[in-house]
Amino acid sequence: MKNGKALIVGAIGHFLVDFACATFLLRHNGETIWWMELLIFYNFCAFALQMPMGILVDRWPAFPWAACGVLLCAAGALPLPLAALGLILGLGNAAYHLGIGKPLMDAEPGSAALGIFVAPGALGITLGTLVARLDSVMVLPLTLFLILLALVVNRLPWKPQERQEEVNSSFSLISSVCLFLVVILRSFAGFTWPLPWKVQALIPLTLAAAGGKAAGGIAADLWGLEKTARVSLGLSFFCFWISNGMITGLAGVFLFNMTMPLCLKQMHRQFPQHAGFAFGFLTFALFLGFVPVILGITAVTKAQMLILIALSWLVLCLAFRWGHNHA
Q1: How far does CA 72 lie from the centroid of its chain?
Q2: How do residues 212-246 score in pLDDT, each as one tens digit?
Q3: Domain-by-domain residue ranges, the chain?
Q4: Which CATH architecture has domain 4-153?
Q5: What interhelical angle do 246-257 and 202-223 show, nearest 10?
């Protein structure tokens, strides 16, 4: 992996950015009657807007997107109106994801780097949420860490991969739509696991999700995207089918989350010259999967979860069947 140092910084930064967004926003919980609307607005800016922003990142890749994103997140420490806070935190989160995600996708031919980059985000959100609830947010140290991070990521060296001379200028609409649907399903599933112990085991559950994302990218580089996707989702179905305890439930979550970097890599294959758009297209799908949850659909039955996993398996198989599968 030629960009190992940049990847480590990017992954640590991903944790810090998501941690900061959670703490700076959630410490204001209860200060407005429009709290649900504020959460929707923040998530729209942070995830849905990555798609149009990704087009801008593809157009002007030399702009310091990641550093500017971190500084916007640091501005969340200021006493701002809540609507402005949701806007700058959301845009900062989006800019950081794309500012690291695009050069990473362009520079690394495999999936391992993607998995390692996206993995720490869930842990940052969970820990940031817990810290905000404890009302022990250390605003000044966190802000200083973010400013330091902005200085570091602005100077990250990316070593480009050797490209093939011919790049496919077309894309598979069917594959792109299938990948979009899979990410919607996995986003919704991530908020609605039918596990009665999930509230009491939030940290282990988060670690399983983060570990699955990292492991998925590594496994795909060893055994291929399609095989890893088929096997991981198939085993996830089996684990949830027999999930009467924490071990099988955590294993199911781990295996299910292995598909996230695989979807990102396969989408990049459809748009090899537009990594920013490919990344943002799937984060828009993440937002759509979150919408039913914020509207009150927060639990599904075990049978419904098995149907979601089976649908994900089928649709992901179609994405590989009809997509461009070159590296």
Answers
A1: 19
A2: 999 999 999 999 999 999 999 999 999 999 877 89
A3: 4-153, 173-322
A4: Up-down Bundle (1.20)
A5: 50
Which regions of the chain are under pLDDT 50? 164-166, 169, 327
Nearest CA-CA partner of 36 in 92, 100, 82, 89: 82
d(CA 316, CA 180): 10
The top-level CATH class assigned to 173-322 is mainly alpha
* % of the chain exceeding 90 in pLDDT: 72
CA distance 236 to 258: 10
Question: In this structure, what token pair is assigned to residue 57?
Answer: 């990142």
